[in-house]
Design a protein that fits this description.
The protein is mainly beta and 222 residues long. It has one domain: Alpha-Beta Complex (hypothetical protein yedk fold). The chain is built from four helices and twelve strands. It is globular.
């Protein structure tokens, strides 16, 4: 799954990668981003709108959903294209969430120890996501997850769907709505680029937010 991530890369750098004006990217570095908060994302408001970088609520609940409907933060790649709750957004409201890495927890001697997962070269990553307008009129999103690959399998059975650079444009293309076509052109980042290390348990508290949260710790330290 993906329940916590970090985004601290220079915002204009993120904008440039998408071919957007640098002034569109304005946010503070965050080292411990939890669900139920505003997060930067790239999307189109509708099929005819230009691509933009704005903020979305991390929690997906379409405006047509019943009051007691779930508000998931993730959607699995296995069901996102077929589930009644997600398939409309998958076809028409795909988006990208920029990140520098994500956190996951592994059981060690009966305790859950946090790890930070990211690219080996420390380049930003792009998380595939979907969004829908909520009942309150704001966009809410869910990050897609897939079975963990490569070294990430050591930490958790699932991981966010991290796209390779060539998949960013087609993922955001409003004309691509067919599931099989998307399967052929969308590719995840090769697992060989992913690395991880243990980090402080301070990350367990969403209120914590500083660069030391992603620094490696030795066994037994905090």
């Amino acid at each position: 799954m993906c329940g916590r991530f970090a985004l601290f890369s220079d915002p204009p750098r993120i904008a440039r990668r998408l071919g957007l004006p640098e002034e569109e990217a304005q946010w503070q570095a965050r080292y411990n981003i939890p669900p139920g908060t505003w997060i930067p994302a790239a999307r189109r408001r509708d099929d005819d709108s230009p691509l933009l970088l704005d903020e979305m609520w991390w929690g997906y609940k379409p405006h047509w959903a019943k009051e007691n409907a779930p508000e998931p933060i993730n959607a699995t790649v296995e069901k996102v294209a077929t589930s009644n709750y997600f398939k409309g957004a998958f076809a028409h409201h795909r988006c990208l969430v920029p990140a520098d890495g994500w956190f996951e927890w592994v059981a060690v001697d009966g305790q859950k120890k946090p790890h930070f997962l990211c690219r080996e070269d420390r380049e930003p990553i792009w998380l595939a996501a979907i969004w829908a307008e909520r009942a309150d009129g704001v966009p809410g999103c869910a990050i897609l997850t897939e079975p963990a690959r490569g070294i990430a399998q050591q930490i958790h059975p699932r991981m966010p769907l991290v796209l390779d650079d060539e998949s960013l444009e087609p993922w955001l293309d409003p004309d691509m709505t067919d599931r099989e076509t998307l399967r052929q052109v969308i590719h995840h980042l090769s697992a060989e680029y992913i690395t991880h290390w243990p980090v402080t348990t301070r990350v367990n508290k969403p209120i914590e937010n500083d660069p030391k949260l992603i620094e490696p710790v030795t066994s037994g330290s905090d």
